[in-house]
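Why do we bother with holo predictions? Because pocket geometry can differ from the apo form. Keep that in mind while you read this record for GDP-alpha-D-glucose.
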Amino acid sequence: MRVPDSLTVVSNRQPYRHEYDTEAETNGNAEPDAETGTDTAAISVDEPTGGLTAGLDPVLQETSGTWIAWGDGDADFDVTDARDCVGVPPEEECYTLRRIDLSDDAVDAYYRGFSNRVLWPLCHGFAELVEERADDFEWYRTVNATFADAVAEHASSESVVWLQDYHFALAPRMIRESIPSSATVAQFWHIPWPSPATFEYCPEGKQVLEGLLGNDLLGFHVERYADAFLDCVRRYLPDAAVDRERRTVRYKGHTTRAVGTPMGVDADSYDQRARTADADRLHALFERYDIPQNVTLGLGVDRLDYTKGIPERLTALERFFEANPGWRGEFTFVQKATPSRTEIPAYARHGDLVRSEVDRINRRFGTDDWQPIVYTEDILPADDLCALYRHADLLIVSSLCDGMNLVAQEYVAASVDGDGTLLLSDRTGAHERLSENAISINPTAVDEFADRIEDALTLSPQDRARRMDALRKTIFENDIDAWMETQFEWLSRVHDGQWTAPNSQSGTDDAESGANSESDSDSGSHERTSLV
Ligand code: GDG
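The structure, written out:
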């Protein structure tokens, strides 16, 4: 992997969180540190357990880089130095974690406000759920500026700064303007990008676009999101020169490249965990949730989010049981829904709707010894989740809009017996990669959706095995390591000024030649010399 020598990662969530261990405190076991007076014995550290954070942590360890993130643990700032930095992992201290201290008001406005009441619904096409509150955007700008200042303190002329996600739409331009021009600024946007017609509802749309165009490289899961981003730039920033073929934008003398690179999962770890899930673990899990042992099992694993299409899935299941009474008592659907962003009214309403639909359907079809839907909001340990994945005969992902969707990929990686079936919404980024061997669903066409559930349950064992085998090949070939390798390859190319656009026939850098006939408003003033 071509990892940059000087890498700075910026994300909202941190890889390590320090928390006071309340048990040690109450037992009186806490030992105050001789120098600081802090009860270090009473502090425990949460380590990264999954997803991108766990994938990036070893990379940062290898490069001795810097990770800048919100310090949300109650003991976080009792272990940092005067610059809010702490060496991590705790035992080895291979790289620097720089923590950003945010007030409750800042978190409420930046995270629960502009990020999740405006950008999240908008990017998923739910313009009607956009909720504008006074001050949220100003806080969002302030928090982005705080992160940008921290980046500037750590950056060198060789730095590659890699921001994660929609919490930082304004920071790239701020960073670009405050660090050496030879450094590289890049971002991965983990959620979809909307059409220009939807983006019109973004209250601060122009500033969001201008902020993102501070990046040298802007990554999305799939190319159609990158194209939608370029369409929005063309529509709402008429001074920008957009080259759709090369996927570049030249604006105020700076060139941004937009790419689509679908993210994978740590397939080996899901595979291993699923293989080691023994009968006792499964038995205990089934007992805990009252799941009958000898039924066909369906599974859904989602954050309790209105984008995930859970009510549509429940309606399709209801139709399925209506049309197929023979499956009553024979098929149980387990829905694991993790509550998230519950302070936001749209999420609270959605949670109520899902719970009441589950109750209604269970009252309609349930008997003394069988419920069609087993519903839990518990957060399961990864080993339990993998045991469920392995045992589930089918998994349903019915998102109405989803940047990628990792659950679909985790299920495939954990299907070590090769006999599960994936039903996958055609509105997920993952569908572009898995559609050939998954059963595709349109989540809003609920009658057809119900038919697809029946199809999945009646596939021949050979067809099921063939599909799963092909899916597993895809998932293992395109795992999180492969994705990171691609990211670092793009980053290195941009950093070294050797960019070749994804679909371009030309092997030369296109920063200048890519411009369309629209003129640059400030040509050349901020362009990094190595790129032109
Ligand atoms: C965003 C984008 C994109 C859930 N419950 C438990 C648990 N989980 C884990 C899953 C999975 C993750 O949460 C959910 O990931 P998704 O990709 O499905 O969805 P988002 O949270 O919306 O993620 C999405 C992703 O970013 C990455 O770029 O794919 O499109 O929306 O990893 O396993 N894990 C455990 N217990 C639970 O109860 N251990």
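The longest helix spans residues 345-365.
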